[in-house]
Amino acid sequence: MIKKLLIITGGFLSVVVLAFAIFTAFILVGTYQIDEEKLIMHNASVLVDGDGEIITNLFMENREVVAVEDIPEHVAHAFVAIEDVRFYTHHGIDIRAIGRALYRDILAGAKVEGGSTITQQLAKNMFLSHEKAWLRKTNEVLIAMNLERRYSKDEILAMYLNQVYFGHGAYGIEAAAHLYFNKSVNDLTVSEGAMLAAVVNAPGTYSPFENIENSKERRDLVLTVMAKEGYITTEEANAYQAEEIVTDRQERQIDESLYTYVDMVMDEALERYGISHEELLTGGYRIEVPIDQTLQQQTYKALQNERYFPAESNDAQAAMMFMDVESGGILAVQGGRDYVRRGLNRVYTKRSPASTFKPLAVYAPALETGRYTPYSMLTDELFQYNNQWIPENYTHTYTGEMTMYDAIKESANAPAVWLLNEMGVDQSLMYLRKFGFQLPDRDLHIALGGLEEGVSPYEMTAAYRALAHEGKRVRPYVIKAIYDQNGRIVGDAGPVQTDVVSPQTAWSMTQMLTGVVTDGTGQSDIQTKTAVAGKTGTQQHPLVEGANSDVWFVGYTPEVVGAVWMGYDSATETSYFAGGSNYPTMLFQEMVNKLPHEQVTFKQPEGTIDLVGSKAMRAIEGLTATYSLGGEGLVSVALSWEGEEDSGIEWRVYTIDGERRELVAESLTVPHFSEGRWNPFSIPHYQVVAYDPIANVEGAASEVVVPSFSF
């Protein structure tokens, strides 16, 4: 029996010796491989504005990796004192600590104390899963000892402090310093560093947010051990222990007002720079964005405010986007009133643009042909097209003809469709492609925004920029520049512009769209601090009489271009917008009033021709005609009418004799005219017409008058 026992014991010892030999060989030759990629920690990316001010962090784990030289000695000493007092002298494992822990576990009859070093904790957290396996502890020791062979103590300590969890979603010492004290790690005091060292042992137990008494007790213990190990004096420890724990909680959660903007940043990083969402959340990128933080907040608050919506439709949805005219940088964007992360972004959702499409589909292309001007007379009558469609004006009134200027200003439908029919759909589609649209539509419904798929607020904002800035379209962006964690630039937006229409067409459209706001459908009670040009749009509901499904305002100031849409995601008999385009118009104007304005009037591009005000081109009023004996003939005829001299407008005088209409005077710059006639029995009727010599177009004619005798 004894012999058998000796054989078993000897065999067991042989196995132990062999295992120890293999274990020692692994350590000595350093063959246990360390996967360097696992030492690359998830590092939060940061969004900053143009001034470098931090807007928010993007992270999978809220961590900001800091270099070893950025961690103060007194902070490092606090962790060494409480977590691994012999850190600077052992080689990865602390035999004395293991023995002490084992002794206390035996006395307690359970595991009460750990013997892991800081290096072992780093090895366990970075390289091993939480799955319990019989070789797990062995692997932990092997990795720890190889880490010690490969890296300096300071490097290991820095990796540990950047990796460890501090509770409340904060990973690493830098994120913890911001969470608990709203400061960077290099600004931490001795007592603050000691408190953070206290937390890591059990964040749920020692967090000052959860239990201030436990937190202070543990912090004081850290300070006591620091004094015992000579990192601070006993007097200093006593002084720090007398301090109350004062925190400044700063949990890094993305502000709800930023949800749409942040999601668009993530999408743009993938689409333009090939950076996946996961990589952006873990790669420590620095992303400069063109956001206006005040406007972003204001747009969010506005969409929560029911006063911007009709009482009967206070549950309607909305989306808006504002972009810098010069650069194309998106200043503010909201994808819905209740937008959630990675949800439906209504800025990208295609809708019927209604009359906001007229400037892009009809009027700008018509001006580009050279056959039409802002004062060209358009037919304003009911016509049937393709033997089935009769476009109607929303006022149900028709004047026979009106200028392009007035047709835009009053948002008349009949002249827009008539002009598109005259110009040709192909001409419209060619320019719509330049404006950035790819449409399957090929019929006259384009004139009124009646599209098969619709267009989005994002697309409309980008398109209107061409009208706002010399006929050039720019690619909108939310990432101005992006840098990797080493400060190297990954990419930048750069100026990406394409010619769409001529500067003259853009300037003419701007002046006409300004009239929409001052005298047309875009009027509101809001007094804007800057000039505004834009167009309203109202799409009638297909199922409910007198209701609307989509209402718009798309427009611009000298510095900002944007779009506001309101309506419902799906048009039903119970889901309809009870108001008109005055709601998005008012919202647009109030939002641009929130911005500072360096330029409050539109700047005319060089080489373009200014338009004369539309009022000067309207029908002449106050025309009187008298005749008297003598003068240059047997009879003299004198005409006078209302009009301003030096206004840039000229007048033409016509005689009307039955069916004959003859021009008898032109280039008149004063509002009166006289002529002599030799036949007193043949005095014709007269008519006066305003004429714009720059645009080479006549305005509406005055009434025809018959001269009366003057005594």
Automatic annotation (TrEMBL):
Keyword Transferase: yes
One Pfam family of this chain: Transgly
Residue stretches making up the Glycosyl transferase family domain: 52-226
Residues covered by the Penicillin-binding protein transpeptidase domain: 319-575
GO process terms (BP): cell wall organization; peptidoglycan biosynthetic process; proteolysis; regulation of cell shape
Keywords associated with the record: Carboxypeptidase, Cell membrane, Cell shape, Cell wall biogenesis/degradation, Glycosyltransferase, Hydrolase, Membrane, Multifunctional enzyme, Peptidoglycan synthesis, Protease, Transferase, Transmembrane, Transmembrane helix
GO MF: penicillin binding; peptidoglycan glycosyltransferase activity; serine-type D-Ala-D-Ala carboxypeptidase activity
Family according to the record: In the C-terminal section; belongs to the transpeptidase family.
NCBIfam families per the UniProt record, alphabetical: PBP_1a_fam
Name of the protein: Penicillin-binding protein 2A
